[in-house]
Design a protein that fits this description.
The structure is a homodimer.
Chain A: H1 2-21, H2 28-34, H3 39-43, H4 49-73, H5 79-94, H6 103-111, H7 117-142, H8 152-171, H9 178-193, H10 197-204
Helix pairs in contact in A: 1-4, 1-6, 4-5, 4-7, 5-7, 5-8, 5-9, 6-7, 7-8, 8-9
Chain A binds a DNA duplex through helix 2 and helix 3.
Chain lengths: ~210, ~210
DNA sequence: CCTACCGATCGGTAGG
DNA sequence: CCTACCGATCGGTAGG
């Protein structure tokens, strides 16, 4: 129906605006005027600013999954998928999928000092993402592609830190070497724990 | 004089408030009511919200230098000072020197998608900090404490990413292992490029 | 989805 | 440093 389509148009714009102005800086008045709607007409779709924020977080997560996670899932599980996930994250920031930089990095640092259900929703999205990253690492380990002593949560922490670092260097510092640096850091870390094909076969005893 | 003292009290509070609510979320009205001053009396110290934001950034930088940079400078240049800098950064977040988490990490992600002089001031503070980190690395290299092939800017990028990662895990995720993870990541990276005392003497030909 | 409105708060000013 | 304001905008409501 039409109401649902309008809602999607609103949310798409809300997500872009929030990535620049923050989830608190996102205002119903500005959103309405940019979309040439009345404030109350737009407001009626959500019922409160908090609901709008929660809906924006959900919409941003769909976009993130679409652009970062899904393409990587086409790669075979193990080392190739893990590398694909890292590459598509860096691409996602490089192509400014959200105009103000990574929506979730911004939201994480905006809400990390405040309580509330918006913060909880941001934290949930981030731990879902860290969980996905961890699973990709665990699979690579179970496939015998990386050192079995690797702790998935530790490596996920480090990779995510490099992603945040790339987002920071690129968007705040406008450093052209941001992605080169992040790639170098990630590659060194992953190559350091990689097990060669020959070694993988040997370990499997095949 | 008394005006200057009042100004410091205001800025001290402004910095704390901004670390939680963001530099845009910092409002003159709330600041005034928490300090039991009139809005206009407080306002007169700065002349505009933008000037208040710039003054808060400067005050935050003094606090940061005091707590993170100065103590590390007491250590001998080279590897010990580099390690001290990393440790005091993690301590700084662990002890919540700013109640809402690292002021500069928050400000970086808040302003990374917007133009203006506040953004420029945040970017300047961050590149000053990255510069200090780079210098500490370069000294360690020049002292023969770490592999001469290390690129200071690359390593500074990586260490800073781990700091942001620790801030994220600790403040948003309330992960008790945040600092353990960051320490492990930093230690592995630094130990990997470290040159032993014996080796340092040999390379110097002494 | 709209117009018309509400009280509260925003940054900022006048005048002292 | 204050009181007393200003226009603009905030989130939200009434009624259609």
């Amino acid at each position: 129906m039409k109401g649902e389509r309008t809602r999607q148009v609103i949310l798409d714009h809300a997500v872009n605006l929030a990535s620049v102005e923050g989830l608190e800086g996102l205002t119903i008045g500005r959103l309405a005027s940019e979309l040439k709607m009345s404030k109350s007409g737009l407001f009626a779709h959500f019922g409160s600013k908090e609901e709008l924020q929660l809906a924006a977080i959900e919409a941003a997560s769909f976009r993130f999954i679409d652009v970062v996670v899904m393409p990587a899932l086409k790669k075979p599980r193990g080392y190739p998928r893990l590398v694909a996930l890292c590459k598509s994250w860096l691409n996602y920031v490089q192509h400014s999928v959200f105009p103000g930089g990574c929506f979730f990095a911004a939201a994480s640092f905006e809400f990390d000092g405040r309580p509330g259900i918006v913060r909880d929703a941001v934290a949930k999205q981030m731990s879902d993402w860290m969980g996905a990253l961890e699973r990709a690492i665990r699979m690579a380990r179970d496939e015998g592609h990386i050192d079995p002593k690797v702790e998935p949560a530790q490596l996920a922490f480090e990779l995510n830190a490099f992603f945040f670092g790339a987002n920071f260097s690129f968007n705040l510092q406008h450093d052209k070497k941001a992605f080169e640096r992040a790639k170098k850091a990630i590659t060194r870390r992953l190559e350091g724990i990689r097990i060669s094909h020959a070694e993988t076969r040997k370990r499997r005893g095949s």
